[in-house]
Write a structure and sequence with these properties.
There is one protein chain. The chain contains eight helices and nine strands. The chain is of the alpha/beta class. It has one domain: TIM Barrel (Alpha-Beta Barrel). The protein has a seven-stranded parallel beta sheet with strand order 1-2-3-4-5-6-7. Strands 8-9 form a two-stranded antiparallel ribbon. Helix 4 runs parallel beside helix 6. The structure holds zinc ion (ZN) (2 copies). The site of one zinc ion has 4 residues, from loops.
Amino acid sequence: MAAIIDSHTHSNFSPDSSMTIKEALEAAEKIGLAGLAFTDHLDLKTPDGDMRFAFDPALQQREAILHRKNSKVDLLSGVEIGLQPGNLKETSEYLSNYQFDTIIASIHFVDGVDPYKGDYYLGLQKREAYGRYLELIYELTQLYQDFDILGHYDYISRYAPYKMRSLFYREFPDKFDAILSSLSQSGKSIEINTNTYRHRNGETPRLDLNIFKRYRELGGEFVSIGSDAHTSERIGEQFEYYLFQLKSCGFKYITHFKERKAVPVKL
Ligand SMILES: [Zn+2]
Ligand SMILES: [Zn+2]
């Protein structure tokens, strides 16, 4: 994995991670990654009023500078922003004070509920629950465009209670086409987030390559890969397998972002 960067990791600047920057860098070096991006959580105005899902990028970046000197792998400074209809202006204002290598835009709340908590799915069929999530991705990424990578488009499948949990292109072709065309036209990247394809309860969600084949047909160029690691042993998890899969769809590059510019790395 010579020049591959893990584009999505959480250091202890995220409230749900205790991984230090040093531990993460050591793990990346050990498994032969070229580096990683620390993309800590910034979810402003969470429905439950949880203020912890924000961090001070100045502190994160100051610490990163110290580690960068001694690190054998690249250290990129990033943020994972959680988009909601009511926080776009605040998010933009917050970020305007800082510079990042990588901005991931993710959706963690659907109409005020985090699917992580399971209540979201109560009384909803898979079609409604997943369809609404995809609609929100489209709507919010039209309204908010200052990002590089669309994070975990399949987050909705991670904690779902359905027997068949994976999210397939064939179930929502129009919704996927809208998202994929938009990403492709604006030169943004879609993420393979390997945190989704882990065994939790029930069926382990799997990646539908038809989504990536269609993205390519629509002119999509940039795909990024991230472990979404909150612990050092998950850094770079399953990358070889998914990069191989991506290559089988005809993609020649995996892309990370440095100083907000796409850096394609040959597969
Ligand atoms: Zn996320
Ligand atoms: Zn994340």
